[in-house]
Fold this protein.
Amino acid sequence: MQTLRSQQTQEKHRRALEKLLSQHRYAEADSLIREHNRLLAYTEHIPCSDITRHMTEADHLEANRLLRKICILSDIIEGAGIDLLNVINRYDRYVSLPLVGQLKHLHTMAGRVRQLIDDVKNEEYSITFGDTCDEINQAIDDNIVKLFRREMKIVQQNNDLPAVDVTINTPD
């Protein structure tokens, strides 16, 4: 969320940079760019309540729902990434497919988001969260199996193939 102050600062820097460049004062322009980039990289940690107290009740509830959804999906993504990498590593520990690199990056990012739950330092909450993630993950796996079976049925019908029983092993 950009504040009016940061928007004004950016506009001030943009005008100053244009002026310096038009005057061919490149060293000063370079210094201004570095200062601007330093300010952009600065992150200020503010309490969530500073933002949420200005929200309507509906937006506050929606923000909370989406935050929980992101944390749950991050947990599921992190676990699925680990599982897939383990399967791939059984066949080639040094594989360098682009997908593997992206999975490792995704796993790292999801782990950072999921770490927010661990940072709460409440064992009961963490256990409940883990159980909820496991339940949702199982429901996702069940739906993926149903989708896969439908896809296989369509492929078989389009290719005039005999029906085959499709069984997919999912972790319990």
In short: The chain is about 75% helix and 0% strand. The chain has a mean pLDDT of 81. The two ends are 41 Å apart (CA to CA).
